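Support reply, case 0932

Customer input (verbatim):
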Amino acid sequence: MTPVVFKRMTECPAYRISPDDTNYFALVFDPAGEKTDLVAVVEIFAPGGRTPPNAHARAHEMFFVLEGQGRALCGGAAVELKKGDAILLRPGATHEVHNTGSGKLYTLTVMVPNEDFAELIRNGTRVELDAADRRAIAGD
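Our regenerated output:
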């Protein structure tokens, strides 16, 4: 196994988990592709988009805001998010992330261990990144 994995963001496949979801994922690293026990994605939220309330039994989940504005809800608390902010959610914490801005919200989202998140994403529907997505995550 090679000690270093390099990938250009323009090479990352993108998926929407469910047809009605308001967020989708550019899959950066995952167990199937890189033989690792983490999943790293750029999560892209449409204006007004959000995650459903969810929790993870064993996994820590980190969101780092690359572009846009949002709000994280966890344990009855709300945290406002903007570019450069990061949050870490511990196992068992029910949480949601909402896009509160007028444009898209882009987060680098990492979950360790994977806890089948990558498989859930890969079982979704492939989507194409638009010009705004490519500009935000790859500088194109």
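We compared this against your earlier run and they match. Two observations from our side: The mean pLDDT is 95. The helical segments are 31-34, 117-122, 131-138. Please reopen the case if you see a mismatch on your end.
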